[in-house]
Design a protein that fits this description.
The chain is mainly alpha-helical. It has 18 helices and 4 strands. It has helices spanning 17-23, 26-29, 33-49, 55-74, 86-98, 111-147, 167-192, 211-217, 227-232, 235-261, 289-312, 327-349, 355-363, 369-378, 383-399, 409-413, 429-434, 444-459, and strands spanning 152-157, 160-166, 269-271, 351-353. A two-stranded antiparallel sheet has the order 1-2. The protein is elongated and about 100 Å long. It starts with 16 loop residues before the first helix and ends with a helix. The mean pLDDT is 94.
């Protein structure tokens, strides 16, 4: 340690270098220096307002804390590995600069409520930044939906062609998924935006502090009411990383489709060279590495969630040093999700959809089979019987190497007398899409409603 530890009074020996290195969290929590200083300034101003320290002392501490922040940002006060954590590093620097009065900063608080405060302040900023990135991606998806409105594509179940859909309808499904991610993070923020400061180590303090004053100064919605709960749980981080895991899963699914769609077998999209890479041995290759990395990084976010859940499992109340290990998975999750959203958004901007090929693929398949069955139902047949008849027609076409567009009415009547000339209004993919009636379906009218809805929602968002 760079100097005598601030907690060393009851100890006869200094902490060994090995123990300090093992227990130090400065490598990670130095990222929280802005939050730590902001919390300290709010705390010292409250101590002054409550007449626990003098106004002059508070002013001296506050001004010095601001000076320390500038030192950190300019590199004049490097946060080295010899420090135990960010809290003690800043407090020791404060005492170095102004003497014993700096020691009054820690009156009526503990590192236990201090770190919980820092993390909540950090999370508040992170959530809002991630929500903005989600909105950016939604806007690009919406733009692509409008640009390619009217373009058909095969819809899939089980990675097998199922029914024709509008490409815009498919892209808007991700807008809806991302909206739930946006909302989950907002819900997380409601519970995390409460101040733990004033809980001290676990039991509160005998000083007449005003917890609501510091909460308001720091922009919190209130305080964590129970002082033990305030320092002993990390569910605000768990909920955040859980929401990020679901978000990462959605990004992974999107990335997987771009990986598939960029293959020669699908050839649905053309991703810009700026978001693909080549092979070190095969000159012809154009690999969707960026999409693959987004897909792969989802595993890191999942791992961070399992890390945190396992760390908290069976911990007795209140604070335990195990909880120091929450920072690496928290920071890694924020970084991974932010960069994945940013790169996914820009990759999508620079991706073109091959509309002619998408629609050509529909003509060479049986994706309007359900519409044929529905046609027979409207003619009075039970759906199961209509399903069976349509299946036999598909089998006939496969045996004769043809598609629905090659069939004539005479051939269709050999399968059912209920076929009439109007069946040809239902056989083609575009007719299938246009015939849809249900709310939220792939019909052009319903997809247009979705576009109008999301345009209004996203335009209103900052």
């Amino acid at each position: 340690m760079s100097q005598k530890a601030l907690w060393s009074g009851r100890f006869k020996e200094s902490l060994s270098k090995a123990a300090l290195t093992f227990s130090s969290s400065i490598e990670f929590d130095k990222q929280l220096y802005q939050e730590d200083i902001a919390g300290s300034i709010a705390h010292v101003e409250m101590l002054s307002a409550c007449r626990i320290i003098t106004a002059a002392e508070a002013r001296k501490i506050r001004n010095t804390l601001k000076a320390i922040q500038k030192e950190i940002e300019t590199g004049k006060f490097p946060l080295g590995d010899e420090e135990e954590d960010i809290h003690l590093a800043i407090e020791q620097r404060l005492i170095q600069k102004i003497g014993p009065v700096g020691g009054k900063l820690h009156t009526a608080r503990s590192r236990n409520d201090q770190i919980a405060l820092d993390e909540r302040l950090f999370l508040r900023t992170a959530v809002r930044e991630i929500q903005k990135l989600i909105t950016h991606l939604q806007r690009v998806l919406l733009y692509k939906s409008e640009k390619y409105f009217g373009v058909l594509m095969p819809g899939y179940t089980h990675v097998q062609r199922a029914q024709p859909v509008l490409l815009a309808h498919h892209l808007l499904a991700y807008v809806s998924m991302l909206e739930r991610d946006y909302e989950r993070l907002g819900d997380c923020l409601k519970r995390s935006n409460k101040s733990p400061l004033g809980a001290a180590a676990l039991a509160g303090t005998s000083f007449p502090i005003d917890r609501m004053k510091t909460a308001k100064k720091l922009g919190f919605d209130g305080i964590v009411e129970n002082s033990i709960d305030a320092v002993s749980d990390r569910d605000y981080i768990l909920e955040f990383v859980s929401a990020c895991s679901i978000l990462a899963m959605h990004l992974s699914r999107m990335a997987e489709e771009f990986v598939l769609w960029s293959t020669k077998e699908f050839a649905f999209v053309q991703i810009s060279d700026a978001y693909t890479t080549g092979s070190s041995i095969m000159p012809q290759k154009k690999n969707p590495d960026i999409a693959e990395l987004i897909r792969g990084k989802t595993g890191s976010v999942y791992g961070n969630l399992m890390n945190l859940l396992t760390m908290m499992k069976a911990l007795p109340l209140a604070y335990n040093r195990d909880m120091q290990e929450d920072k690496a998975p928290l920071f890694e999750t924020v970084k991974t999700v932010r960069t994945s959203l940013f790169v996914m958004t820009h990759m999508l901007v620079h991706t073109e959809f091959r509309k002619e090929h998408l629609e050509e693929e529909l003509r060479n398949d049986f994706t309007s089979a359900t519409d044929v069955a529905d046609y027979l139902v409207r003619k009075g047949l039970p759906f199961r019987e209509a399903h069976e008849i349509t299946g036999r027609i598909v089998s006939y076409c496969i045996d004769h190497r043809m598609y629905f567009g090659n069939l004539d009415l005479e051939t269709l009547k050999t399968f059912s007398k209920h076929f009439e000339a109007d069946i040809f209004d239902f056989l083609l993919p575009r007719q299938s899409v246009e015939q849809k009636k249900s709310a939220g379906s792939t019909s052009p009218q319903e997809v247009k409603k979705q576009i109008v809805h999301w345009t209004r929602v996203l335009k209103a968002r900052k």
